[in-house]
Fold these 3 entries.
Entry 1:
Amino acid sequence: MANRYTLRMELPQSWTIVDVFTGQPAVVRQKVMVGMNPREAEDMVVQMNVRDVRRRERAERKD
């Protein structure tokens, strides 16, 4: 299953989490995932992709 989220460097030491399907910055709890430091962004993108895979797997089982 392809990852839904990826990282994009905006400026040195400033990263954005991008939704691959829409091309737009991701939003989590009404916060746009932009201007993040590299470590925070890497940790968050991994967590978001794990949650998304689980969500899609649950949706496939219901079909």
Entry 2:
Amino acid sequence: MDGETPWRMFAELRRAAPVHWNPEPDGGRGFWSLTRHADIVAADRDAATFTSEEFVNLEEVDERQAGIRRSMLEMDGPRHLALRRLLSREFTPRAVAGYATFLRGLTARTLDAALTGDTFDFVAEIAADFPINVLARMLDVPDGDTRKLIDWGNRIIANTDPDYADVLLHSAESERYRDLPFRSPASLEVFEYGRELAARRRGGTGADLISRLVNQPPADGVPLSERDFDNYFLLLVVAGNETTRHAITHAMRALIDHPEQAERLREDPGLMPGAVEEFLRWASPVYHFRRTATRDTVMGGARIREGDKVVLWFASGNRDENVFDDPDRFDVTRTPNDHIAFGKGGPHYCLGAALARLEMRIMFEELLPRLADIRLAGEPRRVRSNFVNGIKEMPVTITRA
């Protein structure tokens, strides 16, 4: 699928069938697609009607599987809030601002290494390298382990991409791994690694994320089980790496395609905070999350039945012409910019939103002044996925400033 096809498809759905029923081609269980900004926001905020408890991707899981694989993403209500609060203070805007000096230094080191050559893969040398090192610091893991974290994230989240997946999601072999997140055997490696770290941190006084998970009881008084810890740690590894790197890559691609926008940011660095919001809207690094209707309801004139799967297409909402003027125009001065790349005010609003914004702002504040010119040196290669809007390879040629 080419890069423009999803946006044309979403535009047609928003116009003709904003709440659209998608039957499964094999006669199995279909799902509703929500494509308008207002409907997506309404469903995202209404966990009582549209629950995450039945899983947030389109894979069918039975009750036993759900119990084994359930992470904070697949919870609602008091338990979800208690697990979220375990680390929420570490991700507030005030808390992540304390990483600014570290991020400046990390960005400089990343760029010093990448920009030694004239042609290189932007994803491998910059976009993937940068956020994983931030995560490594927050987890307090050795710098030498960052490549393992990147590899695990690729293999787990891109479970429909033969370049990454150990076992493709819909293959017969994946049944052997049906109890693992994303049916990926790489999850076992992440679990083992996380358990080793937890064993060393338990009972200590560390302030890293793992120490807080193992030494700080949840507010509801229910301790984390080993399974709870496994799934929480895996979520940090995947979410802390994948989405920010894809957002950075898409932002760079957009600036390459719109050099006049890059020049505006060079001339006026004060535009960068607003530009980051446009980067996020444009990238929409997570295409969708799924919910399940807990009762019969009506949305956009469609009658949704209890038990129906309902998919919130955040990527479509970010191009909704009812919310964004000329939504297919990339504009670093766009205001207002009511994008929903992180969700919108619901209980599952992205925990790492403030950190992602800071990472992206500092990256482009440091990168753009170093470049007189940057162009594609080959066609970018996309991650084969309907879940993450990812680019796995983007060769570029630069002229240093």
Entry 3:
Amino acid sequence: MEDQKNLEAIMGLIMYGGNAKSDAMEAIAAAKKGEFEEADQKIADAEASLVEAHHSQTGLLTQEAQGNHMEVTLLTVHSQDHLMTAIAFTDLAKEIIALYRRLDEK
């Protein structure tokens, strides 16, 4: 049963991390076209997905803190990689959108 919960948390990290990165990429594309309201909405969607991913991660960390050690598999590492990439990509997307805004103001 605990393995199933861990697998669900791991898959949540992958799914929400992927969604966040995708939304951030769409936000950049919108900003490139000067559609800043859409870009802002896509960044908000990306951040909401990151919050959900963090909930999944917190579940895993809580289990570890309680002494319930889980086996670290390639899937576990992959899920953490998805989350960290999505966080970095979303942060960079915000900077790129800000640059497009500055260019649009000129």
